[in-house]
Design a protein that fits this description.
Largest sheet: 8 strands, antiparallel
Radius of gyration: 23 Å
Strand content: 25-35%
Distance between the termini: 40 Å
Number of strands: 27
Helix content: 10-25%
Shape: globular
Length: 488
């Protein structure tokens, strides 16, 4: 038995899960579809606590007989953020944030925030986010645009100053939070970033630089249908988009004198415009360019999104039942890329250790677990893990052959056969079976047992530690339990 480290990969992948265009899909379903964890799961929420209609969702508070656009409301039509002044830590988005962390991923939280809020208004949000380990917070994204409601309430300079204020509050009150600025990108005509002078101090204050860029987009959704006769969509050269994003990072380094991680917080091609087959081809080409580029300039990107009411998802929502997704060709293509080494966290074996073994979880790119060798003689009929009473309450993420499995507290059995269904073993092979332990309730807790939402800033915010007292029992069998007749 050895210690094993989970470390960052050359380019991380995050997955968007829910927005104005679709409902949140539970992480167990996504894991079964993708067979591997992402670095993070991206959630989108809005926070305008001083509006009269708050906390109703905008489209509910101000229904439109004839919809004119996704953002033609008093505030953005994301689901309301129920923390902050309300302090509802068991409501949205916290119920989903806990689920994401339990399953070994980081929270990537987009918040559109009323730019008239003060420092005192923002401190409760910082306190909300303290127990969630490394959390990536994107505030008032696409801020050089015109479409979002915060753009209609404030000047660009005010939005830039507000972002700097958010950074100040988070760095002081929730230093585990990394703040993302999603602003204008490089323009060939000027040789500068869009509004780079206005947002210069915001770029300097941010922890992570970002832009949103779609390879194709039907912005008229959901009001109309994209056809060859309409002008409510765009479609770009994938290579041109790639080069623009790369030039954006180069220009940011020049104007700030800094070097920070660069991410693309929303990326996809819209099947409304390109159709389902070309959507998959465009994203595959973009990801291949990333892998082939020796400069390795992009830290991560977020695929927008898992299930979409339009055609911006790996699945589209079944209009008969929003709990059902219809898989698109891009799902298999993207999943194949997700499992490639370039887009996968590194698993690094270390020195032997003994039981009970300490396990540490900081983030999906910084964790310490346990690994053992499992020899498989041929393709099995049963490959199972059994967790006895001293293990049943543990929360574990399990990696086997590149596939990831989740064991929730209280669960006593994990079936590994889904790996062999798709990767049959033709001759004897030794696998690494790896165990990691993210927070059992999704939260980091102070050692003194105090409330994590009100406890003082400390090391507890960065690491969750637990102990593995024993290993599960492993059952591998190569024949059926009983066979009446063999059918060829």
């Amino acid at each position: 038995m050895n210690k094993v480290f989970l470390k960052e990969c050359p380019c991380a992948l995050d997955m968007g899960d829910g927005s104005e265009r679709g409902l949140y899909v539970n992480q167990d379903y996504i894991l079964q579809k993708m067979r591997k964890i992402h670095r993070g799961i991206s959630l989108m929420y809005t926070y305008y606590p001083k509006d009269k209609t708050w906390p109703l969702r905008a489209s509910v508070a101000c229904p439109q007989d004839t919809p004119t656009g996704a953002w033609d409301y008093p505030y953005e039509d994301y689901f309301p953020y129920r923390g902050g002044v309300e302090g509802k830590h068991d409501d949205e988005p916290f119920c989903f944030m806990k689920e994401i962390r339990q399953r070994g991923m980081d929270v990537v939280l987009t918040l559109t925030i009323d730019p008239d809020l003060t420092e005192e208004d923002l401190i409760p949000i910082a306190n909300d986010l303290r127990p969630y380990g490394r959390i990536l917070l994107r505030v008032n994204h696409e801020c050089t645009g015109t479409w979002f409601c915060f753009n209609k309430r404030a000047t660009y300079q005010k939005l830039a100053d507000f972002f700097v204020l958010v950074c100040k509050v988070m760095h002081e009150h929730a230093p585990n939070v990394k703040v993302i600025l999603c602003a204008g990108m490089y323009e060939d005509a000027t040789g500068k970033l869009e509004m780079e002078d206005i947002f210069l101090e915001a770029h300097k204050a941010a922890d992570i630089w970002s832009g949103d860029k779609y390879l194709a987009l039907h912005w008229g959704w959901p009001v109309d249908v994209a056809t060859k006769d309409t002008k409510n969509y765009c479609c770009y050269d994938v290579d041109a988009v790639y080069d623009t994003a790369k030039k954006t990072l180069k220009r940011l380094r020049e104007i700030t004198g800094q070097d920070k991680p660069m991410v693309l917080s929303e990326l996809n091609a819209d099947g409304d415009v390109t159709g389902a087959y070309e959507q998959a081809n465009m994203m595959r080409h973009f990801m291949e360019r990333l892998e082939q580029d020796d400069e390795k300039w992009l830290s991560a990107f977020t695929f927008y999104q898992f299930r979409d009411d339009g055609r911006l998802g790996l699945e589209i929502t079944d209009p008969n039942n929003h709990d059902v997704g219809i898989e698109q060709p891009i799902l298999a293509s993207y999943r194949k890329s997700l499992h490639r080494e370039f887009f996968s966290q590194k698993l690094v074996s270390d020195k032997p250790i003994e039981l009970p073994a300490k396990m540490r979880w900081a983030s999906s790119e910084d964790a310490e677990g346990v690994e053992i060798d499992v020899k498989v003689e041929k393709n099995p009929h049963y490959a199972e893990l059994y967790f006895e009473d001293n293990l049943k309450d543990m929360n574990l993420m399990i990696e086997f052959g590149g596939y990831w499995f989740y064991k929730a507290p209280g669960v006593k059995f994990v079936d590994l056969m889904s790996y062999f269904f798709e990767n049959p073993v033709e001759s004897a092979k030794t696998f690494k079976l790896r165990f990691f332990a993210p927070p059992a309730d999704g939260l980091n807790h102070p050692q003194d047992g105090s409330d994590p939402y009100t406890a003082a800033i400390g090391e507890w915010m960065y690491n969750y530690e637990t102990e593995l007292p024993a290993l599960p029992k492993i059952r591998i069998e190569y024949e059926p339990v009983s066979l009446f007749k063999h059918y060829d």
